Give the backbone structure.
Amino acid sequence: MEFLKLNELALKLGLKERGNTGREIAGVSSPEYPVSERICVIWEHSAARKLPLEIPIIGKEEYFDEGRDGLISENPRAVLPEVLRIFQPSERKKGIDLRAVVICEKENISPEAYIAPNAYIGEGCEIGEGTVIEPNAVLLRNVKIGRNCLVHSGAVIGADGFGFERTPEGLVKIPQTGGVSIGDDVEIGACSTIDRGTMNDTVIGSGTKIDNQVQIGHNVKIGRNCIICSMSGIAGSSELGDNVIMAVQAGVSDHVKVGSNVVIAGRSGITSDIPDNSRVSGFPARNHNDAKRALVLAADLPLLVKRLKLLEKKVDLLQNS
């Protein structure tokens, strides 16, 4: 186990130390399971109060009681990724593993990218510098991925879009001749699927993060820095602006435009266009505050129906008297 002294960690993070600066730190622990040799990153004062005094922390200055060691940060949450990287540096691999299946020209894959065992890279694919394709991920034909992306195991990118035409003879498959275009710094979760476009590309903007088990239909266009949480689905030819958040099990129907900076609550269903800077929930999705009020009123419906029936009886009595 490799240790860093508190003042050495402070230097790496650019933070001011507090208490015993020569104290040795072996790693990072969560506030729920603190370990005295490891530092906790705390962004809520209540969490700091629950920790034994011997646990070192990274937190705001007001979180430090007398006798607490640690590092002072005005934004401790932002420090967490870097401190985790310091204590658990990931080995950066590059090249194409001999057990991967690569059909495209190898010149289309950056020598700084890494293709893991049993990954499949189809015809016409392009993969940028620093991108990692994990084991058993599949990139079918004409998938273009930018720099520093991560495609997790089991993801399938570039499968046929779900397109059929109903005829008197039955359903006729519409050929899906487009591809998938993915920007830089995109992450695609395990077992997620992104279909290729019918004629044009399905597009995922730079910085977007897609969770596990997400379905993205053909011709969809997703903007920059979006967050798509697990078990969500976006139907064909829909568009999401920049900085959209889709919570768990949210859905977007086909040919819908969702503006930038929109937050879609879990299990919401988007059936019509949503303007920029909206916060929506429910099915069909509407303004989040309106949806909450409707839920409260719905809970009172049995009582309201009972009162209505009593009023009807009173009205009948008055009319018959």
Remarks:
- Helices lie at 6-13, 45-50, 76-87, 288-299, 301-320.
